């Protein structure tokens, strides 16, 4: 196991570079572990199925728990799916993220608009920002922080 220690550096997009771990459950094959100077990314396969397809304009989500609340990503997954969004993966992230954020892939057509629609539907999402490279694949990755509430 590789330990990565770096000093936190505050970025204008509301996150700090810091060591972290992402465990993503996706319906695709297992990807090899990837290590970056500031984060460790680990994929594990555990298919996530959704019974309903998202409505037009609602792109698939990955939900990551960046809190100490066990199972928060799975709770949020149920909330988002009830609201008509497909969640393709859940997991944990250890990082210094300022507030709950929907990170969108700027290379995916409609991802920014979909992330804004998600934020409007779920005001617990405080910010919408372009994804940073260390986040898992997907048009939208929601990172839950201690300010996230399901109400």
Relevant terms:
alpha/beta, five-stranded mixed β-sheet
User: How helical, in percent, are the residues?
Assistant: 10-25%
Number of strand elements: 11
Distance between the termini: 38 Å
Number of helical segments with 4 or more residues: 2
Low-confidence parts? 1-13, 15-52
Largest sheet data? 5 strands, mixed
Mean pLDDT: 74
Strand content: 25-35%
The sequence of SSEs as H and E is: EEEEEEHEEEHEE
Shape: globular
Structural category is alpha/beta
Radius of gyration: 14 Å
Give the spatial strand order of the biggest sheet. Answer: 7-6-11-9-10
Topology:
Elements: E1 9-10, E2 15-17, E3 21-26, E4 34-35, E5 40-45, E6 61-65, H1 72-82, E7 87-92, E8 96-97, E9 101-104, H2 111-121, E10 127-130, E11 140-144
Parallel strand pairs: 3-5, 6-7, 6-11, 9-10
Antiparallel strand pairs: 1-2, 2-8, 4-5, 9-11
Condensed summary:
Strand 4 and strand 5 (40-45) form a beta hairpin. This protein has helices at residues 72-82, 111-121; strands spanning 9-10, 15-17, 21-26, 34-35, 40-45, 61-65, 87-92, 96-97, 101-104, 127-130, 140-144.
Task: Give an overview of the whole structure.
This protein is of the alpha/beta class and 151 residues long. The chain has a 5-stranded mixed β-sheet with strand order 7-6-11-9-10, with helices on one face. The chain has a 3-stranded antiparallel β-sheet with strand order 1-2-8, with no helix packed on it. It has a 3-stranded mixed β-sheet with strand order 3-5-4, with no helix packed on it. It has helices at 72-82, 111-121; strands at 9-10, 15-17, 21-26, 34-35, 40-45, 61-65, 87-92, 96-97, 101-104, 127-130, 140-144.
């Amino acid at each position: 196991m590789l330990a990565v220690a770096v000093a936190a550096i505050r970025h204008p997009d509301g996150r700090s570079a810091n060591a972290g771990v992402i465990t993503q459950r996706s319906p695709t094959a297992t990807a090899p572990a990837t290590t970056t100077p500031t984060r460790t990314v680990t994929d594990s396969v555990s298919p996530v199925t959704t019974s309903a397809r998202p409505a037009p304009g609602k792109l698939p989500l990955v939900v990551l728990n960046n809190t100490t609340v066990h199972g928060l990503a799975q709770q949020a997954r149920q909330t988002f799916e009830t609201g008509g969004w497909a969640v393709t993966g859940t997991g944990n992230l250890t990082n210094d993220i300022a507030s709950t954020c929907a990170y969108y892939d700027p290379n995916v057509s409609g991802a920014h608009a979909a992330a804004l629609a998600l934020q409007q539907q779920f005001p617990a999402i405080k910010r919408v920002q372009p994804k940073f490279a260390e986040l898992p694949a997907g048009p939208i990755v929601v990172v839950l922080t201690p300010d996230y509430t399901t109400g």
